[in-house]
């Protein structure tokens, strides 16, 4: 008999349906579509022995494939079979066609799980795929960092309260956490940090006592989806929790306090992954307090975690946040490299340094951090921000995959050529201890991310981090196909909103990488001089003659010298510095002519006028999709597009007026600039 899967093209066209079976108020995002079959079909799972992950597969199969039953025979419609570890590693999978349907091969239950979601995706969202289809993750650690606080708030969260905590208790909604784990596993995430890196007093106690029982419950749910649990710890915990006089990492009693603490954590949570530490940054305590360095701090914790296979993820986001704005020599962009590059090779092999994509702080446009490629003997994780702190608060549309891809593909030019994605793997002495993390964007909102379209960032992060070859466009289309029932033409229109949205957001907020002209502390909306005379080290230096930060060796802060020779010369020299990074590296007159042929001032005017027009186009496209979208999604983004429009207009008018007043140069196209 012809297997139903042999007619997959027809299945894809006819039988996808939005379903209510996954009851409840939650939006199941890209997993809403079931592959429906007219006949009962079966799957076979060669699981050797039952594990939490194989149990998950049993629960998931009927959610993804309608009317499917487990069978005792490998001659099933979908057969999970042992695969070749040498080719697939521990998490990869291979899907092949069989007489009866498909076989999914992998060397581990986690690989089966990813293969199951992979097959579902192939059948619901991807166009023609040749079989066998083989997929092995490009990075080992694929992680989501939560900046969730015990009181239920989320630092830089724009989708409601925390799914983990509520009013200083554990929310305890395990079904919700399970649903979240499912979303993450379906795009290949295998690690989650469950609390904010700013560890306040209450969370400092997470490392002991009753909290551990609750954390164990979370960790068990995540583990059933192949996800490891990490905790952020407070470097001063030995004082706060342990009642010691100091947290000096070289003090033996501090080290033994941590040893004891870690031992108890592993007694409670045997497969606990490790700690994430933000030290000596923005008020968090750290080794500098005791005149020690960051390797002293990280290694002391690593010694405690080592015997259990635990790791210490140590963040490089360390800088002086009490800078004098009048000191033009000081440059915050330099800090991470100045502190961590000299320590390369001095960390134990269960320490991983976590490095933000850019040298400052998740702006819509920054150069790539010079630590990539420069660190040659240290395990490393690249940190992105999925939550839209500086990129529109999940009100403005901003699909971030193009930006992440740019970073990962960036050639650091250390040696002949070394891209960031290669540097992560190749410069980490223990490759399985390297990867990519993203600060998460979900909360209690029914659609998880507040903005429906912001789901595409969570989805895209997972997909890209697993498979670096995917294009930002392909990922956007996949997400759209899995999330809505649209014709190919409409799918293309919606995907085009996503794939252009980063350049649009950049157009009306951040000319030529100048950065930080946003409202202080909230980081949304325009306030051009909001940070100009403040302590945070982010200045644009606009005056009547020009704008931008001089970071050259010749006349500026010498930040350019932190790059490889080739990149250094490119950025140092005004004539070779790329337009989009110009004001990050140079202070130039408004009349400076860009490679594009425009003057800086005209570029500012043009992009700000254009940005507003593009948002107007988005509104029109969204209206044109109205009848093809579910009402909730339609209204959700309609409202946000109104907010985005207001935001873009206020950026346009304030930025244009500000620079017109400074420069006195009119718009050559004579458009309306308020005087
Ligand atoms: O982007 C900044 C944020 C802080 C955040 C910090 C960090 C968790 O404004 O809210 O703190 O970065 O990455 O540590």
Automatic annotation (TrEMBL):
Indicate the segments forming the Glycosyl hydrolase family 67 C-terminal domain, all copies. Answer: 449-671
* Signal sequence residues: none
Q: Name one Pfam family in it.
A: Glyco_hydro_67M
Q: Name one GO molecular function term.
A: alpha-glucuronidase activity
Its cellular-component GO annotations read: extracellular region
Residues annotated as domain Glycosyl hydrolase family 67 catalytic: 127-448
Q: Report keywords, A-Z.
A: Carbohydrate metabolism, Glycosidase, Hydrolase, Polysaccharide degradation, Xylan degradation
A biological process from GO: xylan catabolic process
Catalytic residues as annotated in Swiss-Prot or TrEMBL: 282, 361, 389
Q: Which PANTHER family match?
A: ALPHA-GLUCURONIDASE A
Protein family according to the UniProt entry = Belongs to the glycosyl hydrolase 67 family.
Q: What is this protein called?
A: Alpha-glucuronidase
Please report the organism this UniProt entry assigns to the protein: Hungatella effluvii
């Amino acid at each position: 008999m012809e297997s139903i899967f042999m007619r997959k093209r027809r299945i894809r066209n006819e039988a996808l349906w939005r379903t209510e079976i996954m009851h409840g108020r939650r939006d199941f995002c890209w997993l809403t579509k079931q592959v429906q079959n007219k006949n009962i079909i079966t799957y076979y799972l060669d699981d050797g022995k039952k594990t939490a992950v194989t149990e998950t597969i049993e629960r998931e199969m009927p959610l993804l494939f309608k009317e499917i039953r487990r069978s005792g025979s490998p001659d099933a419609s979908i057969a999970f079979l042992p695969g070749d570890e040498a080719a697939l590693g521990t998490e990869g999978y291979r899907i092949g066609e069989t007489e009866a349907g498909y076989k999914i091969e992998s060397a581990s239950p986690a690989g089966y799980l990813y293969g199951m979601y992979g097959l579902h995706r192939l059948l619901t969202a991807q166009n023609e795929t040749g079989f066998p289809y083989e997929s092995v993750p490009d990075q080992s650690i694929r992680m989501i960092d939560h900046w969730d606080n015990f009181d239920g708030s989320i630092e830089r969260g724009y989708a409601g309260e925390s799914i983990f905590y509520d009013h200083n208790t554990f929310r305890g909604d395990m079904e919700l956490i399970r649903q979240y784990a499912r979303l993450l596993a379906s795009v290949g995430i295998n690690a989650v940090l469950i609390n904010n890196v700013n560890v306040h007093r209450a969370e400092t106690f997470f490392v002991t006592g009753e909290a551990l029982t609750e954390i164990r419950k979370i960790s068990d749910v995540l583990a059933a989806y192949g996800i490891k649990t990490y905790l952020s710890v407070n470097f001063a915990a030995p004082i706060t929790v342990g009642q010691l006089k100091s947290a000096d990492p070289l003090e033996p009693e501090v080290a033994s306090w941590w040893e004891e603490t870690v031992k108890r954590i592993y007694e409670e949570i045997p497969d606990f992954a490790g700690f994430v530490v933000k030290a000596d940054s923005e008020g968090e305590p750290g080794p500098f307090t005791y005149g020690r360095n960051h390797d002293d701090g990280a290694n002391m914790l690593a010694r405690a975690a080592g015997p259990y296979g635990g790791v210490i993820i140590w963040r490089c986001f360390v800088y002086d946040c009490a800078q004098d704005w009048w000191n033009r020599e000081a440059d915050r962009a330099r800090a991470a490299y100045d502190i961590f590059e000299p320590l390369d090779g001095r960390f134990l092999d269960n320490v991983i340094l976590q490095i933000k994509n850019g040298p400052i702080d998740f702006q819509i446009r920054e150069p790539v951090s010079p630590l990539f490629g420069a660190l040659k003997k240290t395990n490393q994780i690249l940190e992105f921000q999925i939550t839209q702190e500086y990129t529109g608060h999940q009100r403005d549309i901003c699909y971030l995959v193009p930006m992440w891809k740019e970073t990962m593909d960036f050639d650091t030019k250390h040696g002949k050529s070394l891209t960031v994605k290669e540097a992560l793997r190749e410069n980490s002495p223990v490759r399985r201890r390297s990867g990519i993390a993203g600060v998460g964007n979900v909360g209690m909102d029914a659609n998880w991310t507040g903005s429906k379209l912001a789901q595409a960032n969570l989805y895209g992060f997972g997909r890209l981090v697993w498979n670096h070859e995917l294009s930002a466009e392909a990922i956007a289309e996949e997400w759209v196909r899995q999330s809505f029932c649209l014709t190919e033409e409409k799918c293309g229109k919606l995907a085009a909103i996503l794939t252009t949205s980063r350049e649009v957001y950049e157009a009306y907020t951040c000319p030529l990488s100048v950065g930080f002209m946003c409202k202080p502390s909230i980081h949304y909306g325009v306030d051009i001089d909001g940070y100009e005379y403040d302590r945070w080290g982010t200045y644009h230096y606009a005056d009547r003659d020009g704008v931008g930060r001089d970071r050259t060796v010749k006349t500026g802060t010498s930040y350019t010298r932190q790059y490889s020779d080739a990149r250094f010369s490119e950025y140092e020299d005004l004539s070779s510095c790329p337009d989009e990074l110009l004001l990050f590296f140079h202070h130039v007159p408004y009349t400076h002519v860009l490679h594009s042929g425009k003057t800086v001032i005209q570029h500012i005017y043009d992009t700000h006028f254009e940005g507003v027009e593009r948002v107007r186009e988005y509104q029109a496209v969204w209206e044109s999709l109205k009848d093809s979208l579910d009402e909730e999604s339609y209204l959700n983004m309609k409202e946000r597009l109104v907010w985005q429009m207001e935001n873009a207009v206020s950026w346009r008018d304030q930025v244009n007026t500000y620079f017109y007043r400074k420069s006195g140069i009119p718009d050559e196209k004579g458009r309306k600039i308020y005087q």
